[in-house]
Specification:
Layout (H helix, E strand, L loop, with lengths): L1 H15 L14 H11 L2 H26 L4 H16 L2 H16 L5 H26 L3 H9 L4 H31 L11 H12 L2 H35 L1
Helix pairs in contact: 2-9, 3-4, 3-6, 3-8, 4-6, 5-6, 6-8, 8-10, 9-10
């Protein structure tokens, strides 16, 4: 990670010394540069809100889809498999375009760009979440279920109080990876006009004609966001491990 930062810093410094680079467009010491940076950062709120909303929905839907896959009934297991395979087979960009342009024609409902992005991202990610939850729940030993039955817990309470708390601790790294993935995939919602980080960068490129410099700032924005998310997930893992020891 440190090496990556060093290489990036050296590249930027080398570029600043070249006449072919126009860092003035994002120079915070000038009025226009500060204005451009403020414009680029104005999409941060939408990116975070879109990601958090979509991942929250996908976790719930993924769990609801995962549970039938653990059932003794063949029909429920088949539903789980069909849902996962069909959703995973559709490219996320195609799904975004279909939800935004196609879903309103099918349902007759008007969907704005934000909710179209949320629906598409959540639907796509829910299939992956379902597999993560299924694997996490299956990793819990059979003895845990038998212990729950011995104290007369029903299926819902067994899942709620015994199985899921243990499974979530085990799948937390995978859930963190999906959050990072969702954060990156949120950039694709820019194709339907969502005013998030990537869309703001594209609009600024059109007006300033400096794609290299502007997209470099965009890379740094996503890099900082993802590093913060990764650090938060690692902190939560350590916190849960500490609680287990106590």
């Amino acid at each position: 990670m440190r090496l990556a930062f060093v290489v990036l810093a050296v590249s930027l410094l080398a570029g600043c010394a070249s006449d072919n680079w126009g860092w003035y467009v994002v120079d915070p010491t000038t009025t226009s540069g500060a204005s451009n940076l403020k414009f680029l950062l104005s999409g941060l709120g939408n990116t975070v809100l879109l990601t958090v909303t979509a991942i929250s929905i996908s976790v719930v839907v993924g769990l609801l889809v995962a549970l039938p896959g653990l059932s003794q009934r063949a029909g429920l297991r088949r539903f789980n498999r069909v849902y996962v395979e069909l959703v995973r087979a559709v490219p996320i960009l195609v799904l975004i375009l279909w939800v935004y342009y196609g879903l309103p024609q099918v349902t007759g409902l008007s969907i704005n760009v934000f909710w179209a992005g949320v629906i598409a991202l959540a639907l796509s990610d829910s299939a992956f979440q379902a597999e993560i939850f299924r694997a996490g729940i299956q990793s819990i030993s059979r003895g845990q279920y038998e212990a729950a039955q011995s104290i007369s817990l029903n299926y819902r309470d067994t899942m709620r109080y015994i199985i899921l708390p243990q499974a979530i601790k085990r799948i937390l790294p995978a859930l963190g990876n999906q959050l990072v993935y969702m954060l990156k995939m949120s950039s694709l919602v820019s194709v339907i006009g969502m005013q998030e980080l990537t869309r703001k960068a594209n609009e600024l490129v059109v007006s300033e004609y400096r794609p290299l410099e502007i997209y470099t700032v965009l890379v740094l924005e996503y890099l900082v966001l993802i590093l913060l998310v990764s650090a938060g997930v690692r902190w939560l893992e350590r916190r849960l491990q500490a609680d287990e020891r106590n």
